[in-house]
Amino acid sequence: MTTWTKGDDAAVCLSYRDHGVKATPELIAALSHLTPGSIGMRLQNVEYLATDGARGLSQVAAQTREIWALVSAARG
Question: How many domains would you assign to the chain?
Answer without folding.
Answer: 1
